[in-house]
From TrEMBL:
Protein name per its UniProtKB record: Xylose transport system permease protein XylH
Superkingdom of origin: Bacteria
Main location: membrane
Keyword line: Cell inner membrane, Cell membrane, Membrane, Sugar transport, Transmembrane, Transmembrane helix, Transport
Native species: Lipingzhangella rawalii
Lineage: Bacteria, Bacillati, Actinomycetota, Actinomycetes, Streptosporangiales
Function noted in UniProt: Part of the binding-protein-dependent transport system for D-xylose. Probably responsible for the translocation of the substrate across the membrane.
Membrane topology category: Multi-pass membrane protein
CDD domains: TM_PBP1_transp_AraH_like (cd06579)
Region (Disordered): 1-21
Cellular localisation: Cell membrane
Amino acid sequence: MTQLRPQATQDETSAQSRPPTSLLGTAVGHLRTRLRGGELGAMPVIVGLVLIAVVFQSLNSNFLTPQNLSNMSVQLVAYGLLSCGVIMVLLIGEIDLSIGSVSGVAGALLAVLAVNHGLPEIVAIALVVLAGAAIGALHGTIFAKVGVPAFVVTLAGLLGWKGAHLFVLGDQGTINVPRDGTIAALTKTFFAPWIGWSVALAILGIYLVAQMVGARRRANAGLPTRSTAEVLLRWALLAAPVLGGVAILNAWSGVPLAFLIFVGFVVAFDLVLRKTRYGRMVFAVGGNAEAARRAGINVDLVRISVFTLSSMLASIGGIMLVSRADGVSQATGGDEVLMFAIAAAVIGGTSLFGGRGSSYSALLGMLVIQSITAGLLLLQMDASVRFMITAVVLLIAVVLDAMSRRSQRMHARGG
């Protein structure tokens, strides 16, 4: 036993000292291994985005203009936040059908508190977020403690919170919010170019330092780690879209505050899922709830927490819907919100079967859906075409997910 570790360390040192020319071959080898094992990752989504961009740009030269891309970055935020929340529920193998209605009642509460009752807008926002969390905790408790299936609980929530939405609005039907207030500023604030560049460089710097420190710690512990060249390659692959996106957004109005808020939630949830004990518990419950319970995980608490997060993100999404529209109506948080939020999560790579996914699925999936929407609007096509195309993309994503799971089972059996 004592002779194995020096040999492993020697192999790792040899791997780290490979010349840079072997880096591409190593990356290709890793990719082949992942594909053979059914781990498609974000590759199908990235390929789809490239195809969508090529097709719509060839049909309308305005598709890739800074103005259109800037508008897209703001328009996807509300649905993206709902999708980010529902991903937490999907990871444990459940579904939340209430998020659209929760976003609607959250928007109605926000407008009533801020406009009708004159509360400071920041206070109204905080109360609405807390109300959303309470709604999710209620759903999760009924599911986890009473034993009612999540589908039924959230279907009841879909109907009940839609009714509450209409009740809160009352005879007014529509409530407008001030265009110069905090609520409106959430989707109408754009930062100066230097702020966008500063944020981008800070993110890239933190990422690079974290990767280098992590690699050094693993090497010191005698664990397999990435070479410096591979870390730099991964950093470059991240830097390209980040810096390119900032350059495009700065070419129009600057980086939108709303988009930064959305990306902030995506990154925060990703770190929680990958780097914390709570994240490991969520994946464990999604993989096998009974095994997780026997391992000492409080399965009920995990289930309640993910529904709480889902509804809380839905309420924040509802705030963004109000900000974008300068008000709330009976149509806010309609069925389309629920459909696109769940579709974005699945299209982005989160499995409907639980145990596999990432918060980045919300970002990637919403980029696909919003790209399709924006492209069809430029072509002046009817909304019916958008629904049909989105349905086809969603079906392809589900088929790929099922094929990936089958490939993983076969790979695990050695077949």
